[in-house]
Amino acid sequence: MSDNQSWNSSGSEEDIEPREESGHLVGVGDLSGVLSKWTNYIHGWQDRWVVLKNNTLSYYKSQDETEYGCRGSLCLSKAVITPHEFDECRLDISVNDSVWYLRAQDPEHRNQWIDSIELHRADSGYGSESSLRRHGSMLSLTSATSGYSATSTSSFRKGHSLREKLAEMETFRDILCRQVDTLQKYFDSCADAESKDELQRDKIVEDDEDDFPNTRTDGEFLHNNNGSKEKLFQSLSPKGINGIDFKGEAITFKATTAGILATLSHCIDLMVKREDSWQRRLDKEMEKRRRIEESYKSALNELKKKSHFGGPDYEEGPNSLINEDEFFDAVEAALDRQDKIEEQCQTDKVRIQRSSPVPPADVYSSSGSHRFSDKVEEMVQNHMNYSLQDVGGDANWQLVVEEGEMKVYRREVEENGIVLDPLKATHSVKGVTGHEVCHYFWDTAYRNDWETTIENFNVVENLSDNAAVIYQTHKRVWPASQRDVLYLSAMRKILANNENDPDTWLVCNFSVDHDDAQPTSRCVRAKINIAMICQTLVSPPEGDKEISRDNILCKITYVANVNPGGWAPASVLRAVAKREYPKFLKRFTSYVQEKTAGKPILF
Predict the structure, then answer these.
(1) Per-residue pLDDT, 145
(2) Average pLDDT, rounded, for the chain
């Protein structure tokens, strides 16, 4: 049977109401445009071409692909549209278990989409009176009646005996009250009659005291001289007062009290049975609750083991549904997985020996001539003035890691709820020079050999022989959003002020803007200001021996100021920094020692 021939709840043919084709006008509220759609935890939000037409919401990868068929669609008749509580540009559309997370470019466009969707839903006929008649059923009426009847009958059947006995108790109470009233009247009448008899007896004795016959009394009789007995006082008969049958009333009273006691006993038995029944039901409910709680805990643990929850509400942000402990556990688990993958890669692969020509040292003595030259010079001077200062006596710096020659310090700073902790690390590495350390740190040809957090990078612009603008994206650590960085990297040789100053080299990386690498919705743009300062210390060789790598020591000072660009729990960011920075320094310095072993010393 088609939709326009559906039967109503009465099942009669007279109430059939054909569907009006004019009720859904073609083109009413139709809308199309670009919306960001949440795809998955790897790719996040992606722009899609969305079309609203004929009460159906469809999406395509782009407007050019509309002729090849949609990638997905939702019927809006029973859809639930939910504007997001915090994100003014986002709306969620759900039909049963299918949920689309969409974001418009601004709140006005979101409201326009919501209004158009609601217009289609209203135009579809669902929820109207005619729709209820068309899609009605006898199920609701019969279900309501049968449910009520079954419940009521079951309840009456279970409580029938107890209510019956309580009704008997009411009847016995009424009878007993009437009997008590009757007996009370009888006792009052007896008391009044006794008082009158005493008064009459006293009066007769007083009148006949002087000429009382020569007789003797025996009970209620007076014995005269002729031997006859005369009853002086009329005795009270059981029915003599108000016609009350005292014996019958007493028997009835006794029977009533016996009935009350029997009924009470029966009620107590019923209550004990009912208590046992309720106790068994309570035990069953408690057992059921225990099982449900265990199932809930088990499901929650399984959910925590998954790599992602599947929706943007579980992503990084102040309104994330993940609490701080879960966020930390997820980040730590992801970092552990990356470490295992990296260890496996290092075990399996043979490192490719790369070599790139090293420009002469004079090339690094100046910032070169380009539009960022002044900025580079300013950064170099700031780092040389402040980064080399000793932090041992500064109370603002906290020593968080100490492993052999390596020490890592942190100063806690927050701005608008975002952690901006400056970090400073010092380390000493034998057998390498400052020039070699800075060379492998700055040259992008070796970047992928020692940097394990980068997903990809490219040189946006070469400014000079010792400066370049670099764009790189970092591997995502769920549930944190993926980060990208656009920065200028420059390498400098610091000229010595006197002959006693150590040979000093510096690499500084700081964020810049560039037209060829604009921020995207796929990544959160982080801001950095990083410097690696390396000083070479040489101990004199014995005798006439040449200087070898055993005679050189590189003192490294590494400083980092990073703005993550978005919110994440402070405890998580600090814990990750405490864990990752020492690993990075050890990994990088070991790589430099490996690369320079057996090669001529590069001063």
Answers:
(1) 34
(2) 75
What pLDDT is attached to residue 428? Answer: 94
The full DSSP string for 584-596 is HHHHHHHHHHHHH
Return the beta strands (E) in 71-165 as ranges: 72-75, 80-83, 90-95, 98-103
Encoded tokens for 327: 């966020």
Give first-to-last CA distance, the chain, whole Å: 89
Quick count: other Cβ atoms within 10 Å of Cβ 573?
Answer: 20
Beta-ladder partners of 507: 491, 532
Pull the structure tokens for residue 399: 């020593």
> What values do phi and psi take at 414, rounded to 5?
-130, 140
User: Cα–Cα distance between 554 and 601 in angstroms, integer?
Assistant: 12
60 neighbors 70 (Cβ within 8 angstroms): yes
Helix/strand/coil for 340: helix
Give the pairing of strands 221-223 and 217-218.
antiparallel
Q: Does an H or E element contain 508, and which?
A: strand 503-511
Neighbours of 405 (CB within 10 A): 14
Indicate the pairing of strand 483-494 with strand 524-525.
parallel
Q: What would the DSSP string read from start to end of 32-65? A: EEEEEEE--TTT-EEEEEEEEETTEEEEESSGGG
CB atoms within 10 A of CB 115: 12
Structure token pair of residue 97: 């278990």
Say whether pLDDT at 84 is over 60. yes
Task: Using alpha carbons, select from 3, 24, 6, 23 the residue that is nearest to residue 15.
Answer: 6
pTM of the model: 0.49
Share of the chain above pLDDT 70, in %: 69
- Name the burial class of residue 84, with classes exposed (0-12), middle (13-18) and buried (19+) by CB atoms within 10 angstroms of its CB: middle
